[in-house]
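Lab meeting, item 3. Inverse folding demo.
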């Protein structure tokens, strides 16, 4: 139940998260039946009550729940024995979705893979409905078979198309950013640009990530690219800026990533700025007192300051 302040939904109060529940619920139901726009990291939030983002999803969700209630009553009347099995699958589905509705903030607003657990409940309910309400007549079964094959072909085609997005990390992020742009996708895309040697594109992505949500990682990555480009003054300032943010704010837990410290210290060694390196090493050891790397870096810096 730790709040993740790096996620957009995690930075909202409980009351503000409640406004998002209809849109989140509608997203999962819609994606079950029509998985069109898929993105790996979705950080959108609903910040005001309006027709498109609140009332329409709310009405759709209520209609869906009413439909479930009517089905439940119908199944209980038809077969009380199978009704208990139906309830197990229904509770499985509803409790699985409940976890995803941000009563307790998660690290993104929605994620398609989170529906895998509730999906078992959906499949169980669907199986019971087909068993109890589909007439066992040959012409009808033929039509049902054709419909089932069409659904399988369409969803298989969608799966293969999505698999192409996963060809490599650059393809994935550059595709998904067109669906939902946010600080996390920008920082991941910037990292891929940097690996490809496209440093200016990487800088643009990291700066855009900072515009969405400034925190340690996007500043630290930006500093690394400045270093690779030989823009040392900007790199130094940006590393220092990165260490003004806390990735976690809880007692006894490091507030900065160890890799940020490591990259900054190695950068200072490159500049022969051993005095500042000692300062950063001591900061790191306050959080990672048993990490041999920072003791080694500190010894190396002091040696070069003739403090042998």
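The presenter then showed the designed sequence:
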């Amino acid at each position: 139940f730790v709040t993740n302040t790096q996620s957009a939904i995690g930075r909202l109060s409980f009351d503000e998260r409640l406004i998002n529940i209809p849109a989140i619920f509608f997203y999962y139901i819609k994606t079950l039946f029509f998985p069109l726009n898929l993105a790996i990291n979705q950080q959108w939030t609903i910040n005001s009550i309006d027709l498109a983002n609140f009332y329409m999803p709310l009405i759709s969700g209520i209609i869906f729940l009413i439909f479930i209630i009517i089905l439940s009553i119908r199944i209980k009347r038809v077969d009380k024995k199978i009704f208990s099995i139906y309830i197990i699958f229904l509770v499985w589905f509803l409790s699985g979705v409940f976890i995803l509705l941000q009563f307790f903030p998660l690290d993104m607003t929605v994620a398609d893979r989170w529906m895998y657990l509730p999906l078992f409940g959906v499949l169980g309910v669907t199986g019971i409905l087909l068993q109890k309400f589909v007439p066992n007549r040959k012409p009808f079964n033929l039509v049902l078979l054709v419909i089932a094959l069409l659904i399988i072909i369409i969803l298989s085609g969608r799966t293969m198309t999505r698999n192409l997005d996963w060809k490599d990390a650059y393809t994935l992020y550059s595709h998904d950013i067109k669906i939902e742009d946010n600080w996390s996708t920008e920082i991941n895309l910037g990292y891929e640009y940097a690996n490809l040697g496209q440093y200016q594109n990487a800088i643009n992505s990291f700066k855009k990530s900072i515009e969405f949500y400034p925190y340690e990682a996007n500043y630290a990555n930006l500093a690394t690219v400045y270093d690779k480009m030989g823009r040392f003054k900007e790199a130094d300032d940006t590393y220092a800026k990165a260490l003004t943010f806390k990735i976690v704010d809880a007692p006894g837990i490091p507030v900065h990533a160890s890799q940020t410290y490591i990259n900054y210290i190695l950068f200072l060694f490159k500049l022969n700025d051993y005095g500042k390196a000692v300062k950063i090493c001591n900061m790191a050891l306050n959080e990672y007192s048993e990490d041999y790397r920072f003791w080694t870096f500190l010894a190396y810096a002091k040696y070069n300051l003739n403090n042998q």
